[in-house]
Design brief:
By secondary structure, the protein is of the alpha/beta class. It is built from 11 helices and 8 strands.
Length: about 260
């Protein structure tokens, strides 16, 4: 695989949405927008009773924002547009009338943690450690913050956001509510995912839709909130600190 994509299919009432990017499943704007659109489309398809969101490959689940696109942002409007992509994905998950199961097979960074926090039930492997690295490059997890705080609480969110260079284990994330289950292998995880997905595909769509609204009660203002947060990140990404930090990181990775 060399080309980024978002794909979807529906089989036996189970909708599966998969995304991929060759740079550790990072999320450029086009992928973010396509992912949000696909979640909305599958969520509105009557044939799908439950949705699984996953990434391709066997390494990182999601490396977060695309550094190439971050460094290419030239003004606050461009920054707002890029970070609004994360807002669109989170709000698409929030508004989706179907339960969303997350398959977190590997490391999740930044926006990847936001995705994991925005599904309704997250399965992970023991390799799915997490890190909110934004502060280390001069911005902050402003857009994904509400989703992470909602799932893990302010204390755990503040630990991840403040200690931005430290990885936290999958078990640590499970203990704080980000992951529902953690498995020693992808095979065991996938078996558990399909067991739950099949059960939910035979459950009442109306009951699940009502329960989903209960889960997300109190987030009705997120359409505005997440865009406001995107504007903060979009402004900070223009700073000399951020530009220098990203360039240093890219140079290190190129060695």
């Amino acid at each position: 695989m060399s080309e980024a994509y978002v794909s979807s299919n529906i089989e036996n009432g189970i909708g599966t949405i998969e995304f991929f990017h060759p740079a550790s499943n990072s999320l450029p704007g086009a992928i973010l927008n396509k992912l949000a659109e696909t979640i909305t489309e599958v969520g509105n398809n009557a044939d799908a009773k439950v949705i699984i969101v996953k990434s391709a490959g066997d390494r990182a689940f999601c490396a977060g924002a695309s550094f190439d696109e971050l460094i290419a942002i030239k003004d606050a409007a461009g920054g707002l547009e890029f970070f609004s992509g994360f807002a669109k994905v989170i709000n698409a998950m929030r508004k989706c009338p179907k339960f969303i199961i997350g398959r977190i097979h590997g490391k999740a960074v930044g926006g990847g943690v936001g995705l994991a926090a925005s599904v309704d039930y997250a399965f992970a492997t023991e390799y799915a450690s997490v890190k909110l690295s934004e502060l280390a490059i001069g911005i902050g997890p402003f857009v994904v913050g509400p989703a992470v705080e909602r799932k893990m609480g302010l204390s755990a969110f503040s630990i991840l956001a403040t200690d931005a260079t430290e990885w936290r284990s999958a078990e640590w994330a499970k203990e704080r509510g980000l992951y529902s289950e953690v498995y020693s292998s992808t095979d065991n995880m996938d078996e558990a995912i399909m067991t739950l997905a099949k059960t939910l595909s035979n459950s009442s769509p109306e009951a699940m839709a009502e329960l989903k609204q209960v889960y997300w009660q109190g987030t009705e203002h997120w359409d505005d909130l997440l865009v406001e947060r995107a504007a903060i990140s979009g402004r900070l990404v223009l700073s000399d600190f951020t530009i220098n930090a990203i360039n240093k990181f890219k140079a290190k990775m190129a060695k």
